[in-house]
Amino acid sequence: MNLRRLKTYTVITFLCFFITINQSFSENLGSWNIFNVRGNLFDNFGFMSEFQLRSLSFYDEFFYYELKGGINYALSENFTLLLGTGFYHTFPPGGNFVTPSSQRELRTWIELTTKQYLDRFNFEHRYRIEQRFTSNGYKNRYRYRLLLVVPINSEKLKDNTLYSAIFEEVFFTNLPPYFERNRIFAGLGYKLDFLTLQVGYIYQYDYRITNPKGHSYLQASFVFDVSSKDKTEMKTLPMHD
Hints:
Elements: H1 3-25, E1 30-42, E2 45-57, E3 60-76, E4 79-90, E5 103-118, E6 121-134, E7 137-151, E8 161-173, E9 179-191, E10 195-206, E11 213-225
Parallel strand pairs: 1-11
Antiparallel strand pairs: 1-2, 2-3, 3-4, 4-5, 5-6, 6-7, 7-8, 8-9, 9-10, 10-11
């Protein structure tokens, strides 16, 4: 596939996906904001920290925030382990952080991330096991995400690169009905020297036996890479959550 055809295919695919979903869910489009800082520590060790803020309407009816961080270890160039922990706070709908909150949570997790490359196509598989200590009881959860990132104006994810990103993630628990949630995302990003900006559309479907529901969001991500090593080429794909 030549460069011109690849650019055209990527842009058209993203636009069609975005327009189709946006027309279906624009009446209750929420906002999903991510601020991520990551860097290296020493040898193969690194860190990440992240703050998220979500609203049910477009930058109104804020109902959720989280603050988390973790330490990662690169087993090899394409395999990374991460240990993380964080605080998560959910509020009832109907306003901005309506009290009392509906759930508070302390979470720990371990994850394995693997990367695969097919020409310009960058695939990432993420497997995560979570231990959730919530105000509504203890829960376990298992997550798998498949992410595809394709650079548009360059062959690799390096400085001044525009790229497209698509992922799907599924959530399971150890209790019936087992399937808990599904997320689908499509977006565009731009990598600078130490900052990656990404904007896209994410749809989250929460399965409940009595009242399953989904919600759509405009997601804006800001990833700051403070690594001291050479960052000419992106070693970690620009998304965490």
